[in-house]
């Protein structure tokens, strides 16, 4: 073999080796690629089987039917858009928008069923949130959000407007409230929205025997009339039908614990705007009540049989007491409140129809009263029993208030009341730094003959008259014992220093 032939043979062998090596390498790659593809296909098939199984269980049984014949499945790279609460913000877990339960939010359609549906779901989830979005307006009939089997810490986020029916018909023969929250724990109502009670139809149809504030008897206009005449229209309204015998409170909490109301406005209630009954642990702040000053019996916040209550940083404008504290209340702290128009902040009325009333440990401080009938007041009926004790009114600024300081143990919201000897016992009541202007009488203490008021202490009282359209009077005291801790302006010389020489002692069953 020549050298040239040998070189050609060697080169042919090398080329053959290279070709064989390349084929072997591609075969390995193809095999790995094939395994990788088969593995993905197996995973996809498994997931498909799991989804099919889930659909079967959620559907309640039966054979699963493919929907590919009528609907094309979206591509894997394009998932369905997330559900939204409001304003394009994706819905968080455990958040339930009433719009997703069929609410229209046009102020015309009845959205009661949608709210009930949202509540039924949220009730089962701890820390859930119900969204009432802005700028929608939701018409709601009488409704109850009820426990006691709901999970705790549910939040009502009210950013839109909730309105009551503008007729009497949905209330039947009468209901105590329009919106009721009962037997719940840790419930919060928050947001910047409004709850509107559509109260004007109720105010126009006020019956002749509706209770009137008894302090009207002390306010005598200079023109000789006996107070502001209140005009009553027929009980039957052409639009609303026949008015029920009971006027509803706008929002009521009953038998609940650790309740918070913040940020919202309640306005135009038929009667009380916000009521807490048999509740423990209540917090109300950054809250507003708005109704005309002549809307009858429209208390701002009403407390009854409730304990450990904090109310602060609120603006309360209404036609009755800005805050009313009834029997069974203790550990009440109210501060930084603006009140007016309205009838001031009141404890009572207590002891009506010979009932027993117990109120203790109430502090009201840092309050501004503007153009109200009363400032700070305690009112009880003759014939009652029980006690009011441990009360502090401090740093109250009054501006053109008719009666800044009132104790009235002869309260009567009817034309006549029976004279009775028993009374709710009042003791341990302090007034400090009550300052500003009055238009009728600076101090009115009318205590029971048989159960005088004791330990009534005044300190830093400075009230100046502003002549308006009413007769003006000097301070008045009857059966009131206590101490003047500093000179008062005007002088309250009628306060009897010390304790009564003798007084009626309540029987054990009458005391708290």
TrEMBL record:
<dbReference type="InterPro" id="IPR011050">
    <property type="entry name" value="Pectin_lyase_fold/virulence"/>
</dbReference>
<protein>
    <recommendedName>
        <fullName>Polygalacturonase</fullName>
    </recommendedName>
</protein>
<keyword id="KW-0134">Cell wall</keyword>
<dbReference type="Pfam" id="PF00295">
    <property type="entry name" value="Glyco_hydro_28"/>
</dbReference>
<comment type="similarity">
    <text>Belongs to the glycosyl hydrolase 28 family.</text>
</comment>
<keyword id="KW-0964">Secreted</keyword>
<dbReference type="InterPro" id="IPR012334">
    <property type="entry name" value="Pectin_lyas_fold"/>
</dbReference>
<dbReference type="GO" id="GO:0004650">
    <property type="term" value="F:polygalacturonase activity"/>
</dbReference>
<dbReference type="InterPro" id="IPR000743">
    <property type="entry name" value="Glyco_hydro_28"/>
</dbReference>
<keyword id="KW-0326">Glycosidase</keyword>
<feature type="signal peptide">
    <location>
        <begin position="1"/>
        <end position="23"/>
    </location>
</feature>
<dbReference type="GO" id="GO:0005975">
    <property type="term" value="P:carbohydrate metabolic process"/>
</dbReference>
<feature type="region of interest" description="Disordered">
    <location>
        <begin position="28"/>
        <end position="89"/>
    </location>
</feature>
<keyword id="KW-0378">Hydrolase</keyword>
<keyword id="KW-0961">Cell wall biogenesis/degradation</keyword>
<keyword id="KW-0732">Signal</keyword>
<dbReference type="GO" id="GO:0071555">
    <property type="term" value="P:cell wall organization"/>
</dbReference>
<dbReference type="InterPro" id="IPR006626">
    <property type="entry name" value="PbH1"/>
</dbReference>
<feature type="active site">
    <location>
        <position position="343"/>
    </location>
</feature>
């Amino acid at each position: 073999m020549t050298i040239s032939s040998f070189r050609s043979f060697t080169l042919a062998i090398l080329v053959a080796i290279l070709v064989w090596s390349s084929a072997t390498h591609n075969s390995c790659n193809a095999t790995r690629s094939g395994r990788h593809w088969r593995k993905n296909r197996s995973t996809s098939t498994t997931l498909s089987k799991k989804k099919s199984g889930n659909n079967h269980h959620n559907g309640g049984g039966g054979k699963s039917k493919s929907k590919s014949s009528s609907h094309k499945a979206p591509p894997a790279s394009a998932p369905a858009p997330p559900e939204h609460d409001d304003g394009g913000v994706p819905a968080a877990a455990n958040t339930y928008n009433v719009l997703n339960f069929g609410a229209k939010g046009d102020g015309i359609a009845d959205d009661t069923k949608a709210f009930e549906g949202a509540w039924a779901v949220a009730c089962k989830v701890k820390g859930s949130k119900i969204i009432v979005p802005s700028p929608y307006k939701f018409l709601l009939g009488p409704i109850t959000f009820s426990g006691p089997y709901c999970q705790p810490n549910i939040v009502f986020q009210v950013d839109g407007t909730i309105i009551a029916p503008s007729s009497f018909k949905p209330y039947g023969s009468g209901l105590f409230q329009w919106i009721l929250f009962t037997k719940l724990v840790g419930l919060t109502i928050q947001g910047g929205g409004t709850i509107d009670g559509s109260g004007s139809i109720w105010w126009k149809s006020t019956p002749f025997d509706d209770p009137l504030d008894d302090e009207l008897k002390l306010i005598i206009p200079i023109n000789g009339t006996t107070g502001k005449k209140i005009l009553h229209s027929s009980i039957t309204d052409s639009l609303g039908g026949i008015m029920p015998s009971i006027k509803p409170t706008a929002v009521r909490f009953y038998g609940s614990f650790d309740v918070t109301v913040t940020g919202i406005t309640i306005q135009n209630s038929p009667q009380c705007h916000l009521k807490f009954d048999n509740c423990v642990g209540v917090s109300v702040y950054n809250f507003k009540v708005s109704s005309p000053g002549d809307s009858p019996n429209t208390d701002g916040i009403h407390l009854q049989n409730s304990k450990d209550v904090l109310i602060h940083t609120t603006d309360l404008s209404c036609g009755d007491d800005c805050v009313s504290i009834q029997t069974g209340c203790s550990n009440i702290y109210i501060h930084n409140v603006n009140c007016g128009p309205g009838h001031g902040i009141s404890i009572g009325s207590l002891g009506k129809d010979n009932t027993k009333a117990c109120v203790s440990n109430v502090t009201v401080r840092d309050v501004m009263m503007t153009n109200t009938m009363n400032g700070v007041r305690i009112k009880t009926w003759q014939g009652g029993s029980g006690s009011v004790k441990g009360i502090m009114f401090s740093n109250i600024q009054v501006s053109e208030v008719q009666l800044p300081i009132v104790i009235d143990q002869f309260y009567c919201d009817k034309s006549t009341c029976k004279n009775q000897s028993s009374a709710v016992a009042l003791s341990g009541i302090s007034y400090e730094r009550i300052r500003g202007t009055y238009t009728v009488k600076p101090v009115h203490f009318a205590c029971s003959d048989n159960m005088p008021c004791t330990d009534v202490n005044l300190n830093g009282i400075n009230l100046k008259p502003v002549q308006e359209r009413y007769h003006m009077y000097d301070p008045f005291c009857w059966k009131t014992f206590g101490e003047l801790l500093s000179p008062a302006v005007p002088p309250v010389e009628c306060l009897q220093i010390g304790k009564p020489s003798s007084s009626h002692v309540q029987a054990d069953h009458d005391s708290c």
